[in-house]
User: Fold this.
Amino acid sequence: MITLAVETSCDETALAIYDTEKGVIGDILLSQAKVHSPFGGVVPELSAREHTRNILPLFDRLLKDTGFDLNNVDFISFTLTPGLILSLVVGVAFAKALAYQLNKPLVPVHHLEGHIYSVFLEKKVEYPFLALVVSGGHTDFYLVEDFSRYKFLGGTLDDAVGEAYDKVAKMLGLGYPGGPIIDRLARQGKPVYELPKPLLTDPGFNFSFSGLKTAVLNLIKKEKDVKPEDVAASFQETVMEILLKKTLRAIKETGIKRLVVVGGVSANSRLREVFNEASEKHGFELYIPHPRLSTDNALMIAYAGAERFKRGITAPLDINPQPNIPLEEFGRVWG
Ligand code: KG4
Ligand code: ZN
Assistant:
């Protein structure tokens, strides 16, 4: 079975062609980082315009690079939710047009489910497992009982962790996306500043990152000679301590010793070190995708779409994107 996948939920226009038996046929992506960089974050209207401008040329490039014959596509996978609605509209309209033209089924995918299944492109994980999704829009814990059976355990009450990375980078005048920049800068600094760890000792699995972000802002304002690399290192160590402590609690309380960590922030080099060490020390299986698969891409949408299609689930051509269907509900409706 071969699927063509479309992902435009945020600031990456991404397309992929994936064969469930033979693997990746093509995978192409255009980042809009340069467009949004002057604003220190994604500007929804600009994102939609960029997707509209770029999706067809990108599609042409994908077909040229792979020499793929479109008649061999079995179904179209696409991100239905969540995301910036104007951006989702572009990808959904494109996926629908393809499905209509090729007379092939449409398969809806939840963006977070795409992230979760990004690890499966490299290695299958046994059910049940825990998923920590850390991205620009989400910081959530799920218990994944089976494909499309997601139980929400907790999530951020305010900013997502990737958003906090982006905002801290903006405060330091470092550009966008802030995650990779802070990741690199932190390597040159020392975590000398004590920063708040909201909800650290709170029972349950919720997070809060907005207080931490404000504390960084106050620190930068208060201390004139602050070293950006030390701020970056202090912020990053604090984030990792919070993520790890909550994760260890989730493992202990659920008794599930299999963890996937996915989403843009899972590309972070320090996160990989900290979680790898913990997995050895506490004896749990850890799966983190290759950094290229951590951040938004269409291959993960292809993989999750194929799992749904295998179960005979498709969507009608009049389906429309939604800005935010919770993963658990999406899994029930489309599972
Ligand atoms: O999953 P993703 O590509 O898009 C969303 O679904 O949000 O995640 C993007 C987020 C951004 O906030 C970006 O700064 C962050 O992931 N990110 C990182 C790293 N690479 C990307 N954060 C920390 N360290 C990184 N190396
Ligand atoms: Zn994402």
